[in-house]
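Record type: monomer structure entry
Structure origin: computed from sequence
Chain ID: A
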Amino acid sequence: MYIMFKEYDVIVVGAGHAGCEAAAAAATMGSSVLLVTMNMATIAQMSCNPAMGGVAKGQIVREIDALGGLSGIISDKSMIQFRMLNKSKGPAMWSPRTQNDRLLFAQEWRLALEKIENLDFWQEMVKEIVVEHGKVTGVKTGMGHIIKGKSVVLTNGTFLNGIIHIGEKQFGGGRTAEHAATGLTEQLVSLGFESGRMKTGTPPRVDGRSLNYAAMEEQPGDEHPGKFSFTNTTPLTQQRSCYITYTNPKVHGILETGFEQSPMFTGRIQGVGPRYCPSIEDKINRFAERDRHQIFVEPEGWNTVEVYVNGFSTSLPEEVQYKALTQIKGFEHVRMFRPGYAIEYDYFPPTQLNLTLETKLVENLFFAGQINGTTGYEEAAGQGLVAGINAHNKLAGKEPFVLSRSEAYIGVLIDDLINKGTEEPYRMFTSRAEFRILLRQDNADVRLTPKGYELGLASKQRMEDVTQKQKGVAKLVEQIRATKIKPNEANTPLQQMNTATLKEGTTLEKLLKRPELNLTHLAQLSPNLQEEIQSLPKEITEQAEIQIKYATYIEKESQLAGKLGTMDMKKIPDGFNYQSIAALSAEAREKLEKIKPTTVGQASRISGVSPADISVLLVYLTR
């Protein structure tokens, strides 16, 4: 059997968003990698909505790109619409989002993976991992092949013992028309891992030719579309619109007739669903006072009539789904391609992992993506990237790669998972990050490309581009700070801008700190500045403006991050005996023993460990 396969450095199981990023990262860094998937035709398939990014998720995609991952580049190459969300709010909330061509997205991912020299592929189900003396040494497939690997990254998505529900019908599957993965959960449990069940859902897909778009609200892309990647990917010159419509009491009444057959309400689904992306039946049950819910009508690509009905996720019987859809404005003559469904699957509580995403029970075994209880392409891709980096680094004898909460949303994501765990599908939000003014989407390259370059993921050209950007921003900031203006030069245009006039001379920096003024306004006051701004790319002028406007807040968050960093530098020795410290609360001893934090900072973020417990721990560590 071994003659078919060489021994690989890293075997990645699953070719979804987490698996693709893990395989690409480890192979690019120099490891020999095998990507094992149940179906080569569905590599990087967008199982749910054909979109990337959104609130907080867009920041993650930009961070992946800044580190040298591929999700941002693939999203740019396959996008059909770009929008920067939350532009009416502060820059910490700005979140890029693309609507994507589903088929093109998967195609671009596969082409990108096939260009990586150290990366091989194998199509088959993995039934077991091979473990010797507490260390993973390979995988065993459904056909009995044993493939040797020095490390294994499991990214199984929703396939582990997956069950699909549509009304009273249920059948095994990890995605519609695809088989579930069996055997692996049972083996991991036998090795001592704790597992649980979660669920997620997807809405019906419909024929766009049967919809009346004139009855809906058009949602076009941005007038000047941006992109995810900091590389030279091409911005869109034309875009496809999405549309918005709404449910109504008649729709809700029809849906309620199917509740007795709903797997969610009858108890046939045991897994916990995503709180922030509920099914339509869950919405009308939990929010009975609302007489309508928003529906986003999203095209699936450039050259297809298939439409994704975002906001109508459901597992009700297909006839109930169809009847309810026909009562939505614009959907009166809808033709359904396939019904929505719910899927239940196994996951493993992520408190069983280290911050590198390596498991605590089995050495060189890594988990990434929905197997850790997360939901969303972006969260999965971020974990996959970190797992792939650490699988390579561990074998190469290099330092673990861990992002702190003040360095990246990916750091917040993994820190939350490891220290707090999750009992429902975890989704990233800007509110989860304490340092979101530092973790903006516009500065992800400045924050993370030096790290990606050091790892060997980001190219030399990327690093040079970031350095030039930083120099350009610094030069513009200095120019704005140094430029002074007198009342007689500024007051007439300031009056026209509906802002207070000057009584004495000031700098452009102080004027820019006024909420109602921006760089465009300042350019009207200074011909030299206007000339400079016109010669610079938008990313430089935008970041310079943010640095000046939010300087006080950025400084305050930087100081707080520094304090957190000090706590994270206080190491806790391996095998530290928490049970011997009677002054710790019983809950703290239990949680610390389970999570095994490596630093005091990490210990302080564990649910159930109080500030008083941390004070006690510091005293003992000092002794």
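Annotation 1: The mean pLDDT is 94.
Annotation 2: Residues 460-482 form the longest helix (23 residues).
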